[in-house]
Amino acid sequence: MRMGEFSRRTGVSQRLLRYYEEQGLLQPERKPSGYRNFAEEDIATVRGIRMLLGAGLNTATIAELLPCMVDDGQMLAPGCPGMLPDLHRERARLDEAVADLLSARDALDAIITATAPTGADCPDADYSKAG
């Protein structure tokens, strides 16, 4: 199927599909005219890409993991036990990012708590324009 129909069927923009192709995540057949021709199986691949992106993985990691994914009829699922170290590494990376965000939120809460109410000592300050 051509790019426009594939985009409609997957719900993914043509621009993003081209990006997935540039990243090696999709390999549509190329017609002599240069048009891309996507296979029905590519729909499951895009679902898997979206699922892995939603899980916080970057496209380089997805490119490594995607060949080990199998279509179970509902979604792409891990098919190689050898993927586990990579998946655990990515989970640890996400845990670290969450911890960093929680720490930043705690620091902001401390600043908010220590800050005097608006206007108490800064009569000329207009905080609505900040940020």
Structural write-up:
The protein is mostly helical. The chain has one domain: Multidrug-efflux Transporter Regulator, Chain: A, Domain 2 (Orthogonal Bundle). Helix content is 53%, strand content 8%. The protein contains 5 helices and 4 strands. The strands form 2 sheets. Strands 1-2 form a two-stranded antiparallel sheet. A two-stranded antiparallel ribbon has the order 3-4. Strand 3 and strand 4 (76-78) form a beta hairpin. The longest helix is centred in the C-terminal third of the chain and has 31 residues, at 84-114. 12% of the residues are buried. The model has no long low-confidence stretch (mean pLDDT 87).
Comma- or semicolon-separated keywords:
about 10% strand, mainly alpha, Multidrug-efflux Transporter Regulator, Chain: A, Domain 2, about 130 residues, two-stranded antiparallel ribbon, two-stranded antiparallel sheet
N-to-C CA distance: 46 Å
What percent of residues are in strands?
A: 5-15%
Which consecutive residue ranges, at least 5 long each, have pLDDT under 50?
none
Question: Structural class, from helix and strand content?
Answer: mainly alpha
User: Can you name the CATH architecture?
Assistant: Orthogonal Bundle
Output mean pLDDT: 87
Shape: elongated
Order of helices and strands: HHEEHHEEH
Order the strands across the largest sheet as they lie in space: 1-2
> How many extended strands?
4
Count of spatially separate domains: 1
* Topology-level CATH name: Multidrug-efflux Transporter Regulator, Chain: A, Domain 2
- As a whole number of angstroms, the C-alpha radius of gyration is 23 Å
Oligomer: single chain
Largest sheet: 2 strands, antiparallel
| Fraction of residues in helix | 40-55%
**CATH class type:** Mainly Alpha
Number of discrete helical segments: 5
